[in-house]
Amino acid sequence: MALIITDECINCDVCEPECPNNAIYQGDEIYEIDPDKCTECVGHFDEPQCQQVCPVDCIPLDPDRPETHDQLMEKFVKLTSKS
């Protein structure tokens, strides 16, 4: 699953630089995650780095985008391939 940022976000700016896929960006009101770039850090780290640094725990899995570990790995390969 891709991750989402909920309305509890306090715009503290700590998650954005932690994302190895540059999936996190400043939205109109809070930070947002591009689900096409989010791999939950699969391929980079053992745990989603944004979740690790978030002080308000507002980055859950997106229930509308179920993805298996293999699908996340495929997305990682596509994002990091030099084509």
Automatic annotation (TrEMBL):
<feature type="domain" description="4Fe-4S ferredoxin-type">
    <location>
        <begin position="31"/>
        <end position="64"/>
    </location>
</feature>
<dbReference type="InterPro" id="IPR050157">
    <property type="entry name" value="PSI_iron-sulfur_center"/>
</dbReference>
<dbReference type="InterPro" id="IPR047927">
    <property type="entry name" value="YfhL-like"/>
</dbReference>
<dbReference type="Pfam" id="PF12838">
    <property type="entry name" value="Fer4_7"/>
</dbReference>
<keyword id="KW-0479">Metal-binding</keyword>
<keyword id="KW-0677">Repeat</keyword>
<dbReference type="InterPro" id="IPR017900">
    <property type="entry name" value="4Fe4S_Fe_S_CS"/>
</dbReference>
<keyword id="KW-0249">Electron transport</keyword>
<keyword id="KW-0408">Iron</keyword>
<dbReference type="InterPro" id="IPR017896">
    <property type="entry name" value="4Fe4S_Fe-S-bd"/>
</dbReference>
<dbReference type="GO" id="GO:0051539">
    <property type="term" value="F:4 iron, 4 sulfur cluster binding"/>
</dbReference>
<dbReference type="GO" id="GO:0046872">
    <property type="term" value="F:metal ion binding"/>
</dbReference>
<feature type="domain" description="4Fe-4S ferredoxin-type">
    <location>
        <begin position="1"/>
        <end position="29"/>
    </location>
</feature>
<keyword id="KW-0813">Transport</keyword>
<protein>
    <submittedName>
        <fullName>YfhL family 4Fe-4S dicluster ferredoxin</fullName>
    </submittedName>
</protein>
<keyword id="KW-0411">Iron-sulfur</keyword>
<dbReference type="GO" id="GO:0005737">
    <property type="term" value="C:cytoplasm"/>
</dbReference>
<keyword id="KW-0004">4Fe-4S</keyword>
